[in-house]
Specification:
Blueprint: E1 9-13, H1 27-44, E2 49-54, H2 61-67, E3 72-77, H3 82-88, H4 90-104, H5 106-109, E4 113-118, E5 121-123, H6 126-130, E6 137-144, E7 153-165, H7 166-173, H8 188-198, E8 212-215, E9 222-223, H9 227-243
Parallel strand pairs: 1-2, 1-4, 2-3
Antiparallel strand pairs: 4-7, 5-8, 6-7, 8-9
């Protein structure tokens, strides 16, 4: 078996949130949950290189240097366009954060691809997900009506966690946030979907379910999967692989 290549992990953070529809607004709680996610990522892969980029101008370095002195953690921070985030939604801010990190992170500059995960979350089966890396883009998505090849719809792309090459991101995804409009039911997840469909991208779905854990900033929901949910997802994913194998 070939050795797994661990790309830098980009954690997108916004400690002081201004986006509409955000339930978790307590700054200290958002910091606490982000630090917890870093601990979990280091548990999953002790040698992982982490880039944490905050769009509310919050510098995590004074915390990470103290708590994780042996880890390779790069802390970036800047101020999002607050007016646009308020007007269009959190996905607009996330797009700005990722673009800032791609342009300014030394760890990402030194790599061909990176892992993106929303701060406060981690992926327990990260190594399994990395094993499916295809050199361009791997994510999870919501597919409905998969009874026949003519009735498959991609509802949205899961933007919480994905693997992406810098070239693919810059070519296809770097401007998707400009189409975000949460008030008109056009979140970043659907903007990603539209880009995938427009450019006829194949082989982009993870063959296995990413086991995402942590707390959602928008809803304060604790993510997790029951055994029943994992089995049901495996059945759906198996059916989709048979109907549209090119997506995997």
């Amino acid at each position: 078996m070939s050795k797994i290549i661990y790309p830098p992990l980009l954690l997108t953070s916004c400690v002081i949130t201004s986006a509409p529809f955000t339930r978790l607004t307590d700054t200290n709680k958002r910091i606490e949950l982000t630090i917890h996610s870093i601990k979990e990522w280091i548990r999953i892969q002790p040698e992982i290189k982490i880039v944490i980029c905050d769009g509310s101008d919050y510098d995590f370095s004074h915390i990470t240097n103290k708590l994780f002195p042996a880890s390779n953690i790069e802390c970036l921070y800047f101020q999002n366009d607050i007016d646009s985030v308020i007007l269009y939604g959190k996905g607009y801010g996330e797009g700005e954060i990722i673009n800032y990190a791609v342009k300014n992170s030394q760890l990402i500059k030194d790599a061909d691809f990176f892992t993106k995960c929303t701060a406060k979350l981690w992926v327990n089966n990260y190594n399994n997900c990395l094993n499916s890396w295809n050199g361009t883009f791997k994510c999870d998505c919501n597919c409905t009506n998969i009874k026949s090849i003519n009735n498959i719809e991609i509802g949205y792309i899961d933007t919480r966690f994905y693997l992406v090459s810098k070239s693919f991101y810059n070519k296809y995804l770097a401007t998707t946030h400009l189409n975000v409009n949460d008030l008109n039911d056009q979140p970043l997840e659907r903007c990603f979907r539209d880009a995938i469909i427009k450019h006829n991208i194949n082989n982009f779905i993870f063959p296995t379910l990413p086991i995402i854990k942590g707390v959602a900033g928008s809803t304060e929901v604790n993510y997790g999967y029951t055994l029943k949910q994992i089995i049901e997802d495996k059945i759906r994913r198996t059916a989709l692989k048979i109907i549209l194998p090119q997506l995997f």
